[in-house]
Specification:
By secondary structure, the protein is α+β, with helices and mostly antiparallel strands. About 35% of the residues lie in helices and about 20% in strands. The chain is built from nine helices and twelve strands. The mean pLDDT is about 95.
């Protein structure tokens, strides 16, 4: 195959088209409005582990100021501005862009399905995510029963530790036992060790068929109630005496497909979290990101709602049992 040709087969290009059609039909039937928001924006996320593509607008009239803009990493900020304006439940399928994300499961440009349910919490949204994924995956996979696990249950079941109460020594001992010693500097904070253990030990087993179990089928698996320190843009609440983030992630066959929140609508708290993210970026030697004041103002007017983002390419990989993201993209980054 020469480099000018498509990386994905036409069978998988058709599968993408069919999948997008089914997704739109699902939301139309459920009275969720399709929206369109800017790909190019004046601000971006300050998350220290997500880096944006930056560009600039050069006006034809040289008396105007040249401004820096960003390709969005998600349509989240403008979609929440629509929610705060009274849109009701909405969805969007859009191209998004992230620096440094290239590999077996990553392409710097990818397709994201993002939707928000007005008046719902994250637990209600998990039910709808399960319905949509079951609809999309069932024609291609013999699915086992969906499973819901708290973050704590996942760690207890697979590593024998409580992630909320474990101290740094417990986590260092756990990395030693699992072959992950010296991957991180011992002075890194607790969340970095939890994320290492989760991504390398727990995640690959989630939603995966297991011949030792009664049902040898892949299944949809939800992990919820993450530590409050990993809340990002989610609300927090008490659960079994621990402050947890009201968020979830969904997996199948060892692949993370989506990330959802019971959305934070406290503008002051959101600003403080962004400031903390920028402090972390500064410590890591990264450029600080200006606050998105449009978004922060909208957060204060955001209704009670829950939202989730699902990666279309990863979904297609699971549906087609593809081993590399390039198999489901017509022209991936190295051929774009």
């Amino acid at each position: 195959m020469t480099q000018w040709q498509a990386s994905a087969s036409f069978e998988l290009i058709r599968l993408r088209a069919d999948t997008l059609r089914t997704i739109r039909s699902f939301f139309y039937k459920n009275n969720v409005l399709e929206v369109d928001t800017p790909t190019l924006s004046s601000a971006t996320v300050p998350d220290p582990f997500i880096e944006s593509f930056q560009t600039q607008y050069v006006p034809l009239m040289q008396t105007m100021q040249t401004n820096h803009f960003y390709l969005h990493t998600s349509p989240e900020f403008p979609m929440k501005r629509l929610l705060a304006s009274g849109s009701g439940s909405i969805f969007q399928i859009s191209k998004v862009f992230r620096q440094g994300e290239s590999g077996k499961k990553h392409n710097p440009e990818f397709t994201l399905l993002e939707w928000y349910r007005d008046g719902w919490d994250h637990l209600q949204l998990m039910t709808e995510v399960d319905q949509l994924l079951t609809l999309l995956l069932s024609p291609h996979l013999d699915l086992g029963e969906t499973r819901l696990l708290t973050y704590e249950d996942a760690f207890q079941e697979m590593l024998g530790i409580n992630p909320h109460t474990a101290n740094k020594k417990d986590l260092l001992d756990c990395t030693e036992k699992t072959g992950l010693a010296n991957v991180l500097d011992e002075h890194e904070d607790k969340d970095r060790f939890l994320e290492l253990l989760f991504s390398h030990i727990i995640e690959p087993a989630l939603g995966k068929s297991n011949k030792c179990e009664q049902s040898n089928k892949p299944y949809i698996c939800f992990i919820y109630h993450y530590p409050a320190s990993q809340a990002s843009l989610a609300k927090t609440s008490m659960h079994k005496g621990q402050l947890v983030a009201e968020r979830f992630e969904v997996f199948i066959d060892g692949m993370e497909l989506g990330n959802g929140f019971h959305e934070l609508n406290d503008a002051q708290e959101q600003r403080q979290r962004f400031e903390k993210d920028n402090q972390t970026r500064k410590i890591m030697g990264l450029k600080e990101i200006p606050m998105d004041e449009y978004f922060l103002e909208a957060v204060g007017a955001l209704p009670e709602c829950a939202g989730v983002a699902v990666g279309i390419e990863r979904l297609l990989m699971v549906m087609s049992q593809s081993q590399h993201i390039n198999d489901v993209i017509a022209f991936p980054f190295d051929r774009a």
